[in-house]
Amino acid sequence: MKRDWDLIRKIVLTIEDAPSGWAPELSFGGYSEAQVDYHAWLLINAGLAKGRDVSTKNSEAPEGMITNLTWAGHEFAEAIRNDNTWNKAMRTVKKKAGNITFDILKQLLSSIIKAALGLPPG
């Protein structure tokens, strides 16, 4: 299963927008339960969320159950919240690279935000 940045964004923002701070049950139109569970598992393993691996031998893919975001998860949420920033980053990726690593995505988002604020890129 390929990593889907748009689904990752939906998951992170949904959790951050939850009024309790606890992750709500995650379900998104256009995505299977296995896709959502796998991306939750990825977020836990990346350190953006806390939770646990709930995979079983009958799982379609690794499955994660997120309880809440970490500090890094909240920082990432701030970087991806603005639709214009997100869309600009995704257009840049598609135009110039086709795919991207998490670390490069964070740097690209940071560059876009710094430029919007008139801050030097370094």
Describe the structure.
This protein has 122 residues and is mainly alpha-helical. It has two domains: 5-69, no CATH class; 82-117. The protein is 54% helix and 9% strand. It has five helices and two strands. It has helices at residues 5-17, 33-45, 71-80, 83-96, 102-117, and strands spanning 49-53, 64-69. Strands 1-2 form a two-stranded antiparallel ribbon. Helix 4 crosses helix 5 (102-117). The chain starts with a helix and ends in a 5-residue tail after the last helix.
User: Structural class of the secondary structure composition?
Assistant: mainly alpha
Q: Note the total helix count.
A: 5
Number of domains: 2
Amino-to-carboxy terminus distance? 35 Å
Count of distinct strands? 2
Largest sheet features? 2 strands, antiparallel
Return residue spans where pLDDT drops below 50 for at least 5 consecutive residues. none
The largest beta-sheet arranges its strands as 1-2
Secondary-structure map:
Elements (H helix, E strand, L loop, with lengths): L4 H13 L15 H13 L3 E5 L10 E6 L1 H10 L2 H14 L5 H16 L5
Antiparallel strand pairs: 1-2
Helix pairs in contact: 1-2, 1-3, 4-5
State the gist of this model:
This protein has 122 residues and is mostly helical.
Features:
2 domains; two-stranded antiparallel sheet; mainly alpha; 2 strands; 122 residues
